[in-house]
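=== RUN LOG ===
request id: a7f3
mode: sequence -> structure
chains: 1
length: 365
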Amino acid sequence: MKFRLRLSLRKAVTPESLIRQWLDQHQFAPPVSQPEKEEPHVLLNGEDMTISDAVKLAADALKQPSELVKSVITAQLALPIAKSASDLPFIGGNNEIPGINLTTGKRDAFGVNIALGKTVELSTIDDYLTEHWFATPEVRDPTATRVLFDGKETTVDVVAAKAMAILGQYPLLKKADIVAHIRQKYVEARGGAGNQIVFGYALVPQFAQFVGGTADPLNPLRTQHQFSFTVTRQHHANDSPGLETSFQGSVTITDNGIANIQAGGQEAVVKPLLDGWIQVSGLIQAMVSANWNRDASGSTVISPAFQATGGGQVLVTPTFRAGDYKFLNGHVQLGVQALAGIQATSSGVVPVANVGLVLNIPFSL
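=== RESULT ===
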């Protein structure tokens, strides 16, 4: 009888390798550029953050010492990654400005400047991503793994493999270059704090309005058509809930002519739902207005007023990423708004409330 002894040799899993694996799973990459006078940044989970914040996330998740995690992250950040042409200037041989050296840079076996060749390949990938509508999901993916490509959901790794395939058999870029570049594009596609203008229309039926106090027979409630122009400062990424600050000017018209002109500010907390098709927000407004009223003699009197209200909106926001209706994506919102609060005029302070149908046409600045 013969006995065979099998020895299984397994490579030891070190804490450093666990950290590197976790970083890769959470889409670690260097940012396109570093701040000049601040702590260095990294990209993690589709966000641009400081090394300290990244260390805390990884250390808490892996139960590893912060010093060890920081050393691994710093080492990963120091690895050379190809830059696109838009990130580096093209320079001559005697210029010490960082960039692509066109005269003495390293060349491959075919005599091609390697750095220049990589930027051309990255540019090719950028065009490829644009052609296939590369985008992030409408609702935040916590690990930044899922992306949209040709209007369908896939992963960063799948897109990286497709991008590498279009470069041919002998690309100058390594897989790590392409993956890091796409992760950078992911953060860019998420957007962030920015400005937006919105052209709005609201229909407020007569039956959906309430004004407290004694009814004024000379100025009965009428169906309102409100046309507004809003400038909004978005304090959050497009796929995440957050605060938005707005300044709005509007004119309200009824079947009797102009009802009022008003302007003021608004603070809102916005949250996307159902893959971005629904946007729910809670808001508060403070508006000053000039109201057109009739007096007992039949003359029109313009009187000032102040209105403070709170309420909410539920908007349908089409997210067609591909197909015949993709032009609507991000450029139309339709829904309902409800507000309640107080209105102060020369006659006193009364409660007010209304519900209206809203149509918004937003554009990013």
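=== NOTES ===
The chain has a mean pLDDT of 85.
The longest strand covers residues 257-273.
=== END ===
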